[in-house]
Amino acid sequence: MRGITVVLLAAVALAASGCKKSDPAKPAGPQGADAGAAAAAAGTRVTGKLVEKIDAPPYTYLKIKAASGDVWAAVPKADAAVGSEVTVVDAMPMEKFESKTLKRTFDLVYFGNLPGAAGASPAGGPAAGAEGGPGMAAQHAMAASGPTEVGDVKVAKATGADARTVAEVWSQRKALKDKPVTIRGKVVKFNPGIMGKNWVHLRDGSGSADKKDNDITITTADTVAVGDVVTAKGKVLVEKDFGAGYAYPVIIEEAKVAK
Fold it and tell me: Domains of the chain, with CATH numbers?
């Protein structure tokens, strides 16, 4: 499908990820642009022909000719050929966005990811709000929202005394609080440089969408790509509150990630 399609309402995306938002109010949708009017919530998709590309670390800005008109998107620095068909997923609309690097204000720009792109960022990742980027609430939403397309995932469990599956981390989270775990899974979403961390969603085939225990979020300084099968070792935190109304029933923090 071309153009911009709302693939998940923000509340659905947050529930799928295991992050809960204390304030259920809907975010205000973009206004004044034909392309933006169709996408009033987080978790949109922008598809079309790439007609212009501007590298301005930590982002690459993409001007996409979509069915509804020209749309600007920003993704973690990535290679994309002008003239090719691209799709930006998990896009968050930002109005009147000022790029300090480009000294330019965009009426509307969508922050998202190119599927399969590693999304490398400067060492340590840009801090929250770097480059005038999304505000805290938008950054939380980008990090928290689960992936929209995953397909079949089946990854063998890690080895060792502290090895757990995704579902086991969820079911044993109270007993695992503040303890290290090792988990092996497939990267199904990667957001770099949000609040000074890289955010990774892992799945291994355990758990279920109905029980919301099939996806685990980890934070790390390491860079990975969607589709990678990795082993992550980090500390389990329970009911972690990042502010702005976003809290995680369980999350793995400060993880070391290796392929």
Answer: 3-127 (2.40.50), 166-258 (2.40.50.140)
